[in-house]
Amino acid sequence: MNRKDFDVMVKWLNDQDVLEFYEEAPSNLDLVTKKYGPRVEGEHYVVPCIVEYKNEPIGYIQFYEIRVDELEKYGYPIMLTGTLNLLKVY
């Protein structure tokens, strides 16, 4: 995703079919820029992505790295080992 995708995000975030499942009110370019600007610039922990099919945008997904202190919550045990207390994730 990059700033060129903000217009399509505004379109999607005002689509009634999307709003049926989206937890926020309809949007505009200023709100999309404020929310997604830091994300596309790498200044936010969420990484936004536009899904494309045959070079046409068809959806939005996002991902983020799980913080170390949340790993066990998702079923990844943390074990501190060795004299340096190195973090190992299994």
What features would you describe in this structure?
With 90 residues, the protein is α+β, with helices and mostly antiparallel strands. The chain has one domain: Gcn5-related N-acetyltransferase (GNAT) (Aminopeptidase, 3-Layer(aba) Sandwich), CATH 3.40.630.30. 26% of the residues lie in helices and 26% in strands. Strands 1-2 form a two-stranded antiparallel ribbon. Strands 3-4 form a two-stranded antiparallel sheet. Strand 1 and strand 2 form a beta hairpin. It is elongated, with a radius of gyration of 18 Å. The model has no long low-confidence stretch (mean pLDDT 88). Keywords: Acyltransferase, Transferase. Pfam families: Acetyltransf_8. This is GNAT family N-acetyltransferase. GO terms for molecular function: transferase activity.
Can you summarize the main beta sheet? Answer: 2 strands, antiparallel
What is the CATH architecture descriptor? 3-Layer(aba) Sandwich
- Helical percent range? 25-40%
- Count of runs of 4 or more consecutive helical residues: 3
Weakly predicted, low-confidence segments: none
SSE topology string: HHHEEEE
Mean pLDDT rating: 88
Given helix and strand content, the structural type is alpha+beta
- Please tell me what the overall shape is: elongated
* Overall strand count: 4
Pfam family, one: Acetyltransf_8
Keywords: Acyltransferase, Transferase
Protein name: GNAT family N-acetyltransferase
InterPro entries: Acyl_CoA_acyltransferase
